[in-house]
Each structure stands twice: as C-alpha cells, then as structure tokens.
Automatic annotation (TrEMBL):
The chain crosses the membrane at residues 38-59, 79-100, 150-173, 179-198, 261-280, 286-313. It comes from Novosphingobium hassiacum. PROSITE patterns: ABC_TM1F (PS50929), ABC_TRANSPORTER_1 (PS00211), ABC_TRANSPORTER_2 (PS50893). InterPro entries: AAA+_ATPase, ABC1_TM_dom, ABC1_TM_sf, ABC_MsbA_ATP-bd, ABC_transporter-like_ATP-bd, ABC_transporter-like_CS, P-loop_NTPase, Type_1_exporter. It is found in: Cell membrane. This is ATP-binding cassette subfamily B protein. Signal peptide: none annotated.
Amino acid sequence: MDEETLAQEPIAEPAPRARTLGPLRMIWREAMKYPGRMVAACVALLVTSASTLAIPAGFKLIIDKGFAQGADVDALGRWFQYLLLIVVVLAIGTACRFYFVSWLGERVVADIRLRVQANLLRLPPSFFESNSPKEISSRMTSDTAVIEQVVGTTVSVALRNVITAVGGLAYLFFLAPKLTAILMVGIPLVVGPIVFFGRRVRNVSRSSQDRVAGIGVIVAEVLGAMKIVQAFGQETREMARFGERVEATFQTALRRISLRAVMTAIVIFLVFGGITMLVWEGALGVASGAISGGTIFAIVITAGLVAGAAGALSEVYGDLLRGAGAAGRLNELLREEPDIAPPVRPTALPVPPRGQIAFQNVVFRYPSRPEVLALNDFSLTVEPGETVAIVGPSGAGKSTLFLLAQRFYDPHGGTVRIDGVLLTSADPAEIRARSALVPQDATLFAASARDNLRYGNWSASDEDIWEAARTANAEGFLRDLPEGLDTFLGEDGARLSGGQRQRIAIARAVLRKAPILLLDEATSALDAESERLVQEALDRLMKERTTLVIAHRLATIRAADRIIVMDGGRIVEQGTHASLSAADGLYARLAKLQFEGIVA
Ligand SMILES: Nc1ncnc2c1ncn2[C@@H]1O[C@H](COP(=O)(O)OP(=O)(O)OP(=O)(O)O)[C@@H](O)[C@H]1O
C-alpha cells in the first residue's frame, strides 16, 4: 500500500453520506437490467482475484524448487511458464474486469440521468419553485458521478478485496498456521494507523482546497472591482486582505505537508518493519527446518495483499454511504409525481377547436404562498376570436390566469374550461396544444434559428417558417443572419435585440397554429421603430385568434375588444379604453401612470 493512494483527493463535490446503505438498492436494480454484463464482470472479478492469489503460490514453487543448485532445468521452465500463464490470465482478466465494471458504471449513470430528466419533464412549475434548477442540475452531474464511482470502482474494489482478503488468509493458514495467527494481530496494527493518518491528511487537503478557492474569490472580486478599488485608493488594504488569505492558505498547506511527512515515516516504518519482523520469524523457522524459503516469500507477498485489501476495505464503507446518499437524492427526483396528471380517461377537446376560454368563480392560491389569494372568485369568459386585454397593478393575478389556462395548476375553487371542457378532466398536453404563449422574454435555446422558431411545431417546413417570420416582422433580420436559418442562436450565438427576440417569440406562436393566444407583452421599452414592428406583428397574430393579453402598450389596449382591470385576484373594472378612462377608477389611475404622455 502506498501513501500516495491513501492521500488521494476526494471527488470534487461529495454528496452527503446516507445513514444506511438502503438507497443503493436502486443502483442494484439499475445494474440488474444488464444481467449478461453483471455475470461477465463477476467472472472477471473472480478470475483476477484468484490469479492474484496464485502469484505467491507460483513464486513459492520457483524459489523452493528452482532456486537451488542442481535444480531440474525442465521443471524450472514449466514453473516459470505456469507463472507467466497466471500473469497473462491476470492481465486479460483485469482488462475485462475494468471494461465490464466501468461499462456498468457508465450505463447505470446514463440510464439514471435519462430517467430523472424524463420525470423532470413531467413535473409542473410548482415543483421547480421549491427545487432550484441549479440544485437539480448538480444532482444530475455530481450525484451521478458519485454513483458512477460506486458502481464502476467501489463495488468492484470491495468484492475484489473481500475475495483477496479471505482467499489470502485461507492460503496463509494453509501455509503456516502459527505465523498467520501472529499476522492476524500484526496486520491491523500496521493498517490501522495508516488508515487513520490517511483520513487526517485527506481532511486537511480538503480544507486546503477550500482555502485556495477562497483566494480565487478574492482575486475575482478585486479584479472585477478594480476601478472602485483604485478610485477609493484601497490598493494597500486589498493587498493586506489578500496577503492574510495567502498566508492562511500556506499555513494550512504546511499542516498537510507535516502530516504527510509524518505519515510517510509511519507507513515506511510499519510496512517494512512488519515485513522485517515477519521474515525474521520466518528465518528462524527456515533455520529450524520447519518452513521453506519459498513459503516465507509466499507469506510475505500474500500478507502484503491481505493488508492492502484490508486497507482498501476500510475506505469502501464510507464511499458506499456517500453513494447511498447520492442514490437517495436521485431517487427523490425519480419518484416525484406531478400534481397535475392526465385523468385516466381524459375528455377530448372538441375538433375543430372554437377557442373559447372560460374562468368561473376561480379561487387559487400558490402552494408556496397559501396565505395569498392569487385569484379570488374570478370569472371571465373570452369568446372565440375576441381580444381581451388584462391590466392591473403588479401582483394582481394576471400571469396566474395564464398558468391556469394552460393547466400548470388546478384551481382550488371554481372551474376553467376550454371550448366547454373542464380542464381538470382533459389531458394537459391537449390543453396546451390549444394555446400559443408569447412570454415577456423570448427564451432562446442553444440551437439554430430554425429550431428556435419551430419549437412548438417540428413539422413546419422552411416555407412555413419564412411565412411565420413575415407575419412576425422577423423576416428582415432573419435573412440578415450570417447563416440564415442555420445560424446558431442562444447565449452568445447571435446577438439579438429585445425587439428581435420578441418577434421570434411571435413567429414561434404563429407556427404553433393554436386557436388561443396567451400574450404577455414585454414591459421593457423598445425604440419607436422596433415598437412599431412588434405591434404590427402582434396585430396580425391576434387576428382570428382568441387572445388574452396582459397589456402594457396603449396600442394593444385600444385594439382590444374588452379591457378587464384586475386587482387582488379579481376583476374590479371592465370596459373599453374610453369608458374606463372616463370612469376615473383604477384603470384611469394606471393609465395615467403607465401611458402618461402617450394617452393624450
Ligand atoms: N410562483 C409563485 N409562488 C407563490 N406566489 C406567487 C407565485 N407567482 C405569483 N405569486 C403571487 O400571486 C399573486 C398574483 O401574482 P401574478 O404573478 O399573477 O401577478 P401579476 O398581476 O401577473 O403581476 P406582474 O404584473 O408583476 O407580473 C401575487 O401576490 C404574487 O406574489
């Protein structure tokens, strides 16, 4: 056993340990889906362990029979061939074991990732309110990496070392029962301190890593705020603050170095001291003729193997618990059931669609904020082809209407119907196919312009896409993209302006060909030209569709058939721009604030 291996760094982001190994059952079930590979891995494991143990036996033969004057040269050749054969079997077996065990590890992780993602895609938005996407994505990467480690390494290490330890001890007893009895006491004395120091060193290395990360944080902060630091003349103070961190990191590193220095001495002393004692004891046996030289050699090698196995096994349990922790967290994601599920026998929505949407006495509270009535006895029927503009102060419940119309939540009281069908008795996928959403901020995926546009309708041809782009006033800038529809959009792919992104969202909605349009107008100000292009596109889009629009633009409000004014989850006023402005109520106040200067 070498101290380098003992002081290995831990996995980057260790998952919390579980208290029991129970959650590992899930990994077992996953791995058992590949029985052929499991058998192959186990056979390879047995073969390699057995051939490892056969090596000392081979040496024993060679030393006893071969390293003597006048040895039988033919027999010597056979023994060496036997030893070489073992080495070949060990080499091939090890390669097979590595291949099959790693294959299982990677496959199990791939399957778990696929299943988790498939389940996440079924879950409603409420789930992601209480479970941050960042946290979930770390489970998908670091937790699965831990599982990969468990299946691909830990379990194999465990089984291999159990076989080696048990087989090795049996062989030792067979060779020299008395000496083995002494070894049984001696091995823990050697392995125990090594394992203990190994853990200490590892803990210190971890805190040393943390400190290095701390240095990175300060550097990033100071470099990012360089102008402020210099403008306020804080260079000396920043240098002092940085200096403290660097020195603290050095001190931690020093502790690690000292511990490792001590540990190296202990390891060398214990391992070689142990071997020396063993050989000494053996030499006495050889002198008295009780034992052969080859036997001593075999005992030393086997004892080394057993000690190594014991050391490795002492590490395994912690790793398994960590794996169980990771499996438990992933299992939670796998078992999570959506609150909104399709009914067993969903009612089909009428075909062809009419596009009517009706809220009746709807009462709704968000599960995470049960004290607030987001919708309070809300009733509204939007007739096919009608455009209803919704206005109201922030928090009035406007966006909530959209979420309920798409059945992302079910109301606590009252009903929501599309074309007369209760949403709770219909399939959410069918409900969502009836509406096209234009959100405030167009989400662009890291994909081509083409795929971004046809996100809601993958069968759309390029012709359909260009037609939608024309309707959305997006043709011009799309044609100007360096590689046309193949241009990669997304984070930094092509820098699109706010207005262009909105027009992409509109084109996407056009391609969706849905009878109901849910439009959340962007509040961010666009320049006049952009505003005109977006407005034109929206006007075309709203035509012939039932439209529910959270309105921020006066033009949209004027074009609406009806305006409803919401406050505190209910409708407080209804009418047209003219009638509501004259009424001098909430609408008139909002209009004055929001559209001041434009209204006139
Ligand atoms: N995901 C959520 N979890 C808990 N409470 C929420 C959630 N979303 C909205 N709410 C609350 O529900 C009420 C209605 O919110 P909603 O988003 O529908 O208002 P809004 O009129 O669309 O506001 P804004 O114009 O600011 O978007 C508010 O009190 C809000 O704080």
